[in-house]
Specification:
Layout: H1 3-16, H2 26-55, E1 69-71, E2 92-98, E3 104-108, E4 117-123, E5 128-133, E6 142-147, E7 161-164, E8 169-176, H3 184-192, E9 195-198, H4 199-203, H5 229-237, H6 247-254, H7 271-296, H8 303-306, H9 310-313, H10 317-327, E10 336-341, E11 357-361, E12 369-379, E13 394-396, E14 411-416, E15 428-430, E16 436-445, H11 447-450, E17 460-461
Parallel strand pairs: 6-7, 14-15
Antiparallel strand pairs: 1-2, 2-8, 3-6, 3-9, 4-5, 4-8, 10-16, 11-14, 11-17, 12-13, 12-16
Helix pairs in contact: 2-5, 2-7, 2-10
Length: about 475
């Protein structure tokens, strides 16, 4: 099928398809709904971000239309709510890519060697299919072409690298290291050098026929937690050609009305059918809660297990769900390592309304990273940054000259809601007056992190500290 016919077919799929059939029994439907919820949640969470950043121009989080770049030339604060567990070390740039008609060319400028930057390329399943930047392509810049699954054209000779997305809708998420507030002007200058062009614009050739206009459904408040999720999943699957490895899975999904491009109407379901879907979603949430308690909080599963390519994830949809639930658009293991602090040394959930905490690094045992490390605080209720009187959302390795070292050369951080003694406030990471969690990010982690040679310290309730 040529591209024009494919685009026409997609347009028909989105606009005129009949309802998908619901043929599973309630018992079957419950088990399938559990699978489908874990599978589809990341896709729908991604759609929520897509809609607010690239479709809804009235949104406070709107960045730029499709195939254009939006820059945020400031660090994230507690006022930013576009997605959960944001990173406040690296101002973001954003490109939502519509690859149906033709590829895009991303041009990166050369930047200084000691500054970290990256472009994370994410498909509609939230899988990181490739990277550009310091680790993968260096700091010398270049021209990089991103093509969708159906493109069959010729790669121009002056393109440094061709990268393929398995979905026609994809995301390029740029991170540019910010050293401090005085560095913002330099970050803006770097961001101004990030360019995005369609292949025809880059090659100065006539553009191909435009892809059909998309009628983006408005997000609903309960879309991620109820069977309404399947309506948005059907919509997004129209931009994601089926993979051979998933044909049996998708055939099962079809028996409860989940099919690419088909409308999904809850009102047409019987009470038993709807209940089966709700029960399946509850089962999926319960499995995740147990997994998080047993594996994530116990640090038996790391962020590096949850984010990456399709090959890396190996069909583990619980892992993909966990990544999207706890910190969507997380980096792959080789790019960054994330350590979540959800519990204290005794395995108890951390809550700064009940307890103060410290995090101690022995001398010579700071987080090993070739770029930099950062510990960021989040509100446990909404997963966003925490408003505080210092406007301090993190402590990172570039702040070391301003931190107070212990007498033995170690470093102790104070994690609590109210300010510690004045002489300790340089090392204070303010927490909310309630549940919280911290994320320790290591950019370009050294081998001793992945090998397990470096041991992360645990959050210690102050009452358990040695006097």
């Amino acid at each position: 099928m040529n591209n024009r016919l494919l685009l026409t077919a997609l347009s028909l799929t989105l606009s005129t398809s009949a309802w998908a059939d619901f043929t599973a029994t309630p018992e079957q439907a419950r088990a399938i709904a559990k699978e489908a919820y874990l599978y589809g949640f990341p896709v729908v969470e991604m759609y929520k971000t897509l809609y607010t950043q690239a479709v809804d121009k009235n949104s406070a989080n709107f960045k730029a239309p499709f195939n254009r770049i939006g820059n945020t030339a400031k660090a994230f604060t507690a006022k930013d709510t576009a997605f959960v567990t944001p990173n406040a070390d690296t101002p973001y740039s954003f490109v939502w890519m519509d690859l149906r008609a033709e590829p895009l060319v991303l041009t990166l400028p050369p930047i200084e060697e000691h500054r970290y930057y990256s472009v994370q390329l994410i498909d509609a399943y939230t899988q990181n299919f490739a990277y550009l930047g310091t680790r993968s392509t260096g700091n010398n810049g270049g021209h990089f072409m991103i093509a969708g699954p159906n493109w069959q054209g010729q790669q121009p000779v002056n393109i440094d690298r061709l990268l393929r997305s398995e979905t026609n809708i994809a995301y390029a998420l740029y991170r540019t290291q910010l050293f401090d507030e005085k560095d913002l002007a330099k970050v803006k200058q770097i961001q101004s050098g990030y360019k995005v062009q369609t292949l025809s614009q880059y090659d100065k050739r006539p553009a191909p026929p435009a892809a059909p206009k998309i009628d983006w459904p408005k997000p609903a408040p309960t879309m991620s937690d109820t069977p309404d999720l399947f309506r948005y999943l059907n919509f997004m699957l129209a931009f994601a050609p089926a993979q051979d490895v998933e044909k049996d899975l998708l055939a099962r999904f079809k028996t409860i009305g989940i099919e690419a491009g088909k409308p999904f109407n809850l009102t047409q379901l019987s009470a038993d059918q709807r209940q089966a879907l709700e029960d399946g979603i509850a089962d999926a949430k319960a499995e995740f809660a147990q997994f998080k308690k047993d594996k994530v909080d116990a640090h038996e599963v790391s962020s590096g297990d949850l984010f990456g390519t399709r090959d890396h994830l190996k069909g583990n949809y619980l892992y993909r769900y966990a990544g999207a639930n706890m910190g969507i658009f997380g980096n792959s293991a080789e790019e960054a390592n994330y350590i979540g602090y959800f519990v204290d040394k005794d395995g108890k959930p951390v809550d700064a309304s009940k307890q103060n905490y410290t995090l101690h690094f022995d001398k010579g045992a700071l987080p090993p990273a070739d770029a930099f490390w950062s510990l960021t605080m989040y509100n446990g209720k909404n997963k966003l940054l925490v408003a505080n009187p210092l406007n301090r959302y993190l402590i990172n390795s570039r702040m070391l000259p301003d931190l107070k070292l212990d007498a033995d050369g170690g470093l102790t951080l104070y994690v609590q809601n109210k300010a510690p003694a004045k002489d300790l406030q340089s090392n204070w990471l303010p927490a909310p007056n309630g549940p919280f969690y911290g994320v320790l990010r290591l950019y370009l982690p050294k081998p001793e992190v992945t090998s397990g040679q470096w041991k992360m310290p645990l959050l210690m309730p102050v009452s358990q500290q040695k006097q």
